[in-house]
Structure formats: C-alpha cells, structure tokens
Amino acid sequence: MKLLVISDAPDEGLWDYFSKDKLQGADAIISCGDLPAAYLSFLVTMANKPLFYVHGNHDGRYEQQPPEGCDCIDGKAVDFRGYRIVGLGGCMAYNDGPHQYTEGQMRWRIAKLRRALRRDGVDVLVTHAPAEGLGDLENGCHQGFSCFKGLLERYSPRYHLHGHVHLQYVPGWPRVRQYGETTVVNASGKCFIELPDKPESEWKRPVGMRRWGLRGWSMG
Q1: CA dist 46 to 1, 22, 23, 209, Å?
Q2: Opening angle at CA 145, ends 57 and 138, nearest 5
Q3: CA–CA separation, 84 and 96 (whole Å)
Q4: pTM (2 decimals)?
Q5: CA 178 – CA 21 distance, rounded (Å)
Q6: Residue 205 belongs to some domain of the structure
Q7: Nearest to 135 by CA among 98, 183, 96
Q8: In sequence order, which ranges of 73-158 are alpha helices (DSSP H)?
Q9: Burial class of residue 95 in the structure, from the number of CB atoms within 10 Å of its CB (0-12 exposed, 13-18 middle, 19+ buried)
C-alpha cells in the first residue's frame, strides 16, 4: 500500500503542473495540515482515492470551507486496508489561534482515544506537530509534544507522519528519523511511504461508514 503524504506547502508539481503519473500509484493521500482546502479538494478529485487529513494551526479556515470530498481524522482512529490510522492535529499553544493545545490538553485528547488504542493500537500516527525531540524546534510555536513520544514508546507504530516544521527552516534538516521501531517522517511538501499490502480478509468492513469502507472512533 502506497501513501502520498503532504503538509504545509502545496507542491507545484501536484497542483500547477499536475499529471496523474505524479501520484505514482498512491492508494490514499494523507495531509498533516496547513494546506489550502482547495488543494486537498483538487487532489482527492484528480486521484479518485481517499484523502485523510488533520488540522494544522493555520487551518481555522476549514471551519467555513472544509476540503470537499476529504475525510477529517483529527481526534479519530480509523481503519484503512487493515491498518489502524490515528490522527491528532494542532500544535503547541503559542497564541489564541485555532488548533493549538497545551501539553495537558493534548494528553486529554489522547486519553479520549484510549478505547480504540487499547483495542487495536496504532499502525500510522498522523499529527501536525512533531514529537518532542524528534524533529521539533526550540521556539514555542514549533515545540513538539512529549505525549506523542509516549505514544510511540507504548504502541510502536510503523510510521509517525507529521508536518509543521518546514524542511527549509534548517539547512540539512532530515526528513526521516528513526525512534525505536517507528519511522518518523516530516511530510513538509510531499513524500511517499509504503506499507506491505494486507489480504482483504484482514480488512475491517463494518456497516455505516461512507465510500472508502472506513471504520472509525472519534474522541466524542
């Protein structure tokens, strides 16, 4: 299973100079936040594949105009093709803007997902901000959450996908890091990741979720 992962800045090759071959057989698209709604709507339309997103700290505009045809997984756990994906958007609180949280507030958001996490864990963690010490910066806005590191240590997801810290902020800033069994990927711009395909017999197919066959739990 191939995922196109995007964040923070639209890729010109996927928007201004789009061609379908640039999607390179992606089975789904994941946005880690801070992207125009029109960009996400364009990609989900042209790809005809599911697009899952969390909110970045600049995505308050989604309240008035959410990305059309896309699935918000912020504060949710969903199953896709046999993999559990957990979304936790937002960044460390630094002013009164939207989608900002203190460390305690983010811990509470995670606690609300405890039933889903306890039952099936997490294969792919999707956040906007990084984990503390794993690709964050020292300034208040770009500090990572220590509770994200706790999730990695407890559940060992295959991937932690995040954005928020643009790669151009620091020359030579690595896109990929390893933390235990988890590959941490800064999705700034775009990148592709791959997961082994699971047989359809392992896919969960509950009744009632729309078009992509998703099963999900929200924080309530």
Answers
A1: 19, 11, 10, 22
A2: 85
A3: 32
A4: 0.92
A5: 30
A6: no
A7: 183
A8: 103-111, 114-120, 146-155
A9: exposed
Handedness of CA 155, 159, 164, 168 (dihedral sign): positive
Q: Does the pLDDT at position 210 exceed 60?
A: no
Q: What is the pLDDT of residue 220?
A: 40
Residue 183 included in any domain: yes
Token pair recorded at residue 192: 């592709």
CATH number at residue 23: 3.60.21.10
Q: Which domain holds residue 117?
A: 2-198
Q: How many CB atoms lie within 10 A of CB 138?
A: 6
Strands 189-194 and 2-7: antiparallel
User: Which amino acid is present at 105?
Assistant: Q
Task: Please check whether residue 96 lies inside any domain of the structure.
Answer: yes
218: pLDDT strictly greater than 60 = no
Lookup: tokens for 141: 């806005």
Looking at the structure of the chain, the number of domains it has is: 1
